[in-house]
Design goal:
By secondary structure, the chain is of the alpha+beta class. The chain has 8 helices and 11 strands.
């Protein structure tokens, strides 16, 4: 319950209201081992997923074997939500468990049908869902901005500027392979370019952290 209460999906909803939502919606909790699919491309969408524990990778696999990582889902966040509204009848991407995960699965029907009482917490849940969809739109726009650049260095620069904290550090939530897939390049190419950028004094790479040493120079790349 504590994990659910802290999620954006159930913000401003009380524990008692949350218990009623779970019961009324017939939500269930499931576990998936690392490496397994929560859902795959071409399956028919019917549920909203909330990640309680672990990490999920949202990706697009191609017949060539190439994988394009769209983004990672951390605990407390929903996924599969962009299919909730609209007329797409099949999943366009996969949801793969990076680690062992625990997922709350809520049938979509609950979002489309209000009970006769039109409960305030049901309305709030729908409002929260719309706010999440708005954030998703920004996330997708950001990814398009990254991959539309002409060079790998520019892609890395945009990603670093968008991801760094106030101290200029980026704590990696992806491994090197996942980051390469996210940026749409081969892992060796990414590693080489990061080393070149470090040699040029733009960044400093230290295990799971990348420090931006010269933000002005990174921004100049994007002009």
């Amino acid at each position: 319950m504590k994990q659910l209460e802290q999620s954006k999906l159930f913000q401003t909803i009380t524990k008692a209201e949350l218990e009623r939502i779970l019961k009324c919606s017939k939500a269930v909790t499931k576990k998936y081992p690392a490496g397994t699919y929560v859902f795959e491309q071409e399956e028919v969408p019917s549920k909203l997923f909330l990640l309680l524990e672990g990490q999920i990778q949202i990706c697009k696999d191609f017949t060539s074997g190439k994988r394009d990582v769209l983004y990672l889902v951390e605990a407390g966040n929903v996924f599969g939500e962009i299919f909730l509204f609209g007329d797409r009848k099949r999943y366009w991407y996969d949801a793969v468990a990076v680690t062992d995960v625990t997922v709350l699965e809520m049938p979509w029907d609950f979002f489309y049908h209000f009970c006769s009482n039109a409960c305030d917490h049901h309305k709030q849940l729908t409002q929260n869902m719309l706010e999440i969809l708005s954030e998703d739109n920004f996330k997708i726009t950001r990814k398009l901005h990254i991959v539309s650049t002409s060079s790998l260095r520019e892609r890395i620069a945009i990603w670093l500027i968008d991801s760094m904290d106030e101290a200029g550090n980026v704590v990696l939530k992806m491994n090197r392979e996942q980051l390469a897939d996210f940026l749409g390049v081969a892992r060796p190419s990414l590693s080489r370019e990061l080393m070149r950028m470090q040699k040029d004094g733009l960044i400093r790479v230290e295990r799971k952290t990348i420090e931006v040493c010269d933000r002005e120079a990174l921004e100049f790349l994007l002009i």
